[in-house]
Design brief:
M1 Pyruvate Kinase, Domain 3, five-stranded antiparallel beta sheet, single chain, 256 residues, mainly beta, 3 helices, eight-stranded mixed beta sheet
Length: 256
């Protein structure tokens, strides 16, 4: 079993960036989901309501002190991150503290999304994940994706659709389900997996355009509805970091 993909999103809801190597800390990958977006009423904005934002690529440093946004037309907005007013945002009922980011980032994203948006940097690394740092690691296997593709009548399904940190290969479909509650080594790091990942409408979107193109929820409802899980229509698993360390493409994955 090996790591075959590593995907991070410096800005929650924007495009995923592939990495060859990441450093797992107790809060996860420091730069992953460090930034997020809010609407003019202070609500968190993600791919469910602004899917085409995945067309925007973001790059930041580990501490989120600089940011670069590349738009589909080639326009780049970049510079140092200037922090403004403090805000608190609800992430599915969990409060996340952050600071409004100054400069032209918010304006450029608002124009692209055709709705008013403000960019926020979370105060704490790991806070920008849906479930916080307790769920800073997520993974899905190629075997699982291949089974889903067969159920969907597709040749292949792009794993980016599920926005997982790690993709792995070398196991049967949904073998990762059985790792919940166990410790799993990824390269030099060790993760404890806590639960299956329930799925939402974001998975129905093309990962390049953000436009709905596959009814993944209907497919999962057909063949995964009876799976025991606290979350509906699960695929993939999430967990937290027990032993920090680097993880590289090709590293072994081993349940302990």
């Amino acid at each position: 079993m090996t790591v075959t993909s590593i995907m991070v999103a410096p800005v929650k809801g924007l495009g995923l960036a592939q990495a060859d190597e990441v450093e797992l800390e107790h809060t996860g990958v420091r730069a992953n989901r460090r930034f997020y977006l809010i609407s003019d009423d202070g609500r968190m904005v993600n791919g469910k309501v602004a899917g085409p934002l995945v067309q925007v690529a973001a790059v930041t440093d580990p501490d989120g002190t600089t940011l670069s946004l590349r738009f589909p037309d080639g326009t780049v907005v970049e510079g140092p991150v200037e922090l403004g007013a403090a805000v608190e945002t609800s992430f599915f009922g969990r409060p996340v503290a952050g600071r409004i980011v100054g400069g032209s980032f918010s304006e450029a994203l608002s124009v692209f999304a055709r709705r008013p948006l403000e960019l926020v940097r979370a105060d704490e690394p790991g806070a920008g994940s849906d479930r916080g740092s307790d769920a800073s690691v997520s993974l899905v296997s190629r075997g699982t994706l291949d089974l889903l593709a067969r159920e969907a009548g597709q040749a292949r399904i792009d794993g980016r659709r599920f926005r997982m940190l790690f993709g792995i290969d070398g196991v049967d479909a949904h073998a990762e389900d059985a790792w919940v509650g166990r410790r799993v080594a990824f390269g030099e790091a060790v993760v404890r997996l806590h639960a299956l990942v329930g799925r939402c409408a974001v998975t129905t979107h093309d990962p390049d355009t953000g436009i709905k193109d596959l009814d993944t929820l209907r497919i999962l409802r057909r063949y995964r509805a009876n799976v025991e899980s606290e979350e509906a229509l699960p695929i993939g698993v999430w967990g937290s970091v027990e032993q920090p360390g680097p993880v590289r493409l090709g590293d072994p994955v081993e349940p302990l």
